[in-house]
Amino acid sequence: MADRESKTADPVVWARRLNGTWLVHGGLDDDAEAYMDHLSARDPARLRESCLRARKLVEGLGPAEDPKPWFYGGLFSLATAAEARRFAARHPFVASVIPSLERRPPPSRLRAAGERTRKKIGRIKKAIAGFSRGRARV
Fold first, then answer.
1. CA distances to 3, 81, 119 from 103, in Å
2. Alpha helices of 11-114 — where are they, by DSSP H?
3. Rounded to the nearest 5°, which phi and psi values hold at 25?
4. DSSP assignment, residue 38?
5. CA distance linking residue 52 with residue 69, whole number of Å
């Protein structure tokens, strides 16, 4: 999607469109869509903020960086622990960057992750934490 379009499009429309275009494993796209539907019905302001976060994280990436982990990390970054367990727990990488799940041990499938994966998780978590401090950096 062109930068110009992503900066002017409604963040929710943008996030739904982007989520619908990617090939992902394990039904992450369906779980993300269900989460957005859930927020749309219960907390539209949090849905909008979550989509804005996802967009900011994706827009800050270099061309060689895979945007999917950043997008989904941003999208689920405001999920409550119950929402994260319901919509993201099947996706270990995404679950590992959600702030509300931070006190849980890493998913078993990630305990043996390589250095590169651990560093990416750390970078995404740091960027998400930046939103709370008013400055997100990728």
1. 36, 10, 18
2. 11-21, 28-42, 44-59, 67-75, 81-87, 92-97, 108-111
3. -95, 155
4. H
5. 15
